[in-house]
Amino acid sequence: MFLPCSMILILIVLSIYLLISFVVSGMIVHPDRQPVPKTPRDYGLDSEAVTFRSEDDVELKGWLIPGKEPKLVIMTHVLGLTKYGSAASFRSRAKLYDKEIEFIKTARHLHDRGYWVLMFDFRNHGESGRSPNRGMTSVGLDEHKDIAAALSFVHSREDLRQLPIGFVSFCAGANATIIAMSRRPELFRSVWCLMALQPISLEVFIRTYIGRLSAPAVAWLLLPAIKLFVRLRGSHPLEKMSPRAYAKDIKVPTLYVQSIHDPWTELTDILSMYEATPGEKEFFWIERTNHRFESYSYFQDKPEKMLSWLADRLA
């Protein structure tokens, strides 16, 4: 018995719908691991290769760039990137930007002002180890353990434990820092300030990104199945992958940074985090970028705002 053509067409469309949703869910929880092509020494910076472990026993690898002043900045990176940044030559099914991003250049500006700088790869990224949940990422919900591990490492070092700390945290790194500040406040006793560059609610990002690639209606159609596959893979619910609910627990001066022309978010998302943040806070709009990832290179080329804001709070 043959199926009618209309039924075959429905099955084909449904199969394509499920396949696309499954593939997208995989890119969310298992982004391709980028290499780390350069070290600070390639930029003329002395550095120490450091290793520390998270509370769930993930080995994390980083660089400690020594400074001349008694103050430390911890830099955290974007989902899918590394402590180095992103290599233009790297090819991936989910790579969203084809230009070089060099976080070490941002670190060099900090070093030139005397700061110590700690940079490290999150779990499942760069040179760090694989997480025990089959290597799944969660845009901060699990990665907050890596922030806690970095702070524990700093507190364990005689040459670092007395230094005031500022965070310069990008995207998922900002998510992880905000969540860690809420869940592990005792580790933040020496943290004096936070720069949160484009923190993101992942559901918002996926919806706007797919909407820009196709149409908003397609994004709304695909989103339920993507969320289902994320859960079936064993990850956190997509709608929970956000720092929004944790921003109320930020206890330090905070500078939020956002590209005003970012096509892959809704500005109300980061503004809701800003509104929820108590205490001293400031918003800095990046106006001359048209791509979300361009903004991650902003301070490597124009560090003045970053340096002046940190100087006022790590004096």
Description:
This protein is an alpha/beta fold. The chain has a single domain (31-201, 241-313), classed as Alpha/Beta hydrolase fold, catalytic domain (Rossmann fold), CATH 3.40.50. It is 36% helix and 17% strand. The protein has helices at 5-29, 103-112, 144-156, 172-183, 202-213, 216-232, 267-276, 298-301, 304-313, and strands at 48-53, 59-65, 72-76, 85-86, 101-102, 116-120, 165-170, 191-197, 254-259, 281-286. It has an eight-stranded mixed beta sheet with strand order 1-2-6-3-7-8-9-10, sandwiched between helices. Strands 4-5 form a two-stranded antiparallel ribbon. Helix 4 (172-183) links the parallel strand 7 and strand 8. Helix 1 (5-29) packs across helix 6 (216-232) and helix 3 packs across helix 4 (172-183). The chain is globular and about 75 Å long. 44% of the residues are buried.
